[in-house]
Amino acid sequence: LRRQRQMCIRDRKIVACALALMMMQGMPFDFPMFAGFIFMLGITMVAAPGVPGGAIMAALGILSSMLGFGESEQALMIALYIAMDSFGTACNVTGDGAIALIIDKFFGKK
């Protein structure tokens, strides 16, 4: 369940950054193109390694082939993703710690 949640979060970050970058660059985009991209990204994230930046490195192929990203757009995507990745990790660790404290308070030994 935790791996599925992390895959979903990684997918959202990549899709949001790709859409924002396409809007800022004036690149054409539409819903069917992004629907196919999201589907392929979901499949790609299953094989993405669990290392910092592994998800964006695995997604570079479909960013270029499906969305038409060149080298400069891919470099921006890598920089954006790496900058945001540590915040996602911090939120996951903090949330897990908070849940552990709550569960311990309710079900811990008395």
In short:
With 110 residues, the chain is an all-alpha fold.
Commentary on this structure:
Helix 2 runs antiparallel to helix 3 (54-67) and helix 3 crosses helix 4 (71-107). Helices cover 84% and strands 0% of the residues. The protein has helices at residues 2-25, 31-47, 54-67, 71-107. The model has no long low-confidence stretch (mean pLDDT 86). It is elongated, with a radius of gyration of 17 Å. The chain has 110 residues and is mainly α.
> Can you tell me the residue ranges where pLDDT is under 50 for at least 5 consecutive residues?
none
Oligomer: single chain
**What Rg is obtained from the alpha carbons, in whole angstroms?**
17 Å
Q: How many strand units? A: 0
Q: What level of helicity do the residues show?
A: over 70%
Biggest sheet layout? none
Shape descriptor? elongated
Tally of helical segments: 4
Find the structural class using helix and strand composition. Answer: mainly alpha
Task: Give the SSE order as H and E letters.
Answer: HHHH
* Distance linking N and C termini: 30 Å
> Strand portion, in percent?
under 5%
- The average pLDDT value, as a whole number, equals 86
Topology:
Elements: H1 2-25, H2 31-47, H3 54-67, H4 71-107
Helix pairs in contact: 1-2, 1-3, 1-4, 2-3, 3-4
Keywords summarizing the entry:
single chain; 110 residues; mainly alpha; 84% helix; elongated
